[in-house]
User: What shape does this take?
Amino acid sequence: METSKFIGAACLMCGLTWSALSQTPAGYTVTGPTQEFQCGLYRSEIDCQAHCPRLVVYTVRAEDIASPSQLERKYWTPPELATVLLESADYQQSGLHQGHIRDLGLSAGSAQWIMVNSHANLVPMTPEVNLGPWKQLAARIEDLARTYGACDCRVEISFATAPATAVLGLPRADEPYCLPQLFLVELQAGPLHDLYAIPNDKTKRQLRECLRPAQVSRLPVE
Assistant: This one.
């Protein structure tokens, strides 16, 4: 199945519509200029109007995986991105999680694990997504990395077309921002190539309900 048709079917399953021409979900868009952040564990493209990453690309190797129980979740912001990223104080009284794009447990075996606690790797995520399909996604990536030695991951994040106001999501945020609406996740490991479309809403879903993994034509992961 062609990738655009496959993702389109996924969006229909999730109650969304998809524009095959632009390859973005109808009603969502990249909101402004971007700035790149790169470290040893991931590359992040920051949407400067949304104030959080719109693209995170990374590879999880089998040796990166370890129990995160002994690691601290002290979130921080790279100084050079202080003006273009949300901070922990912005999340207070919101009910939203500071959701890791690259999971802490998929990085705990690396000496650079602290980098995944950067806001260049965090987005506002509903508890239903963070503790549901996103947690299951991390388990899927771990299984693929252990089976094939490595798993390449690409996460594209689409936002609401207009900046949110304080009453819409983060009441303590001191600047306009846009809330993530949809996560498009691409995984490649060995012969497998999976695509997932995960809405960032308050619906309790299983990962298989967001998008059942399927074999599709292989595309390069940046």
The longest strand covers residues 150-160. Helices lie at 3-13, 127-130, 133-148, 207-210.
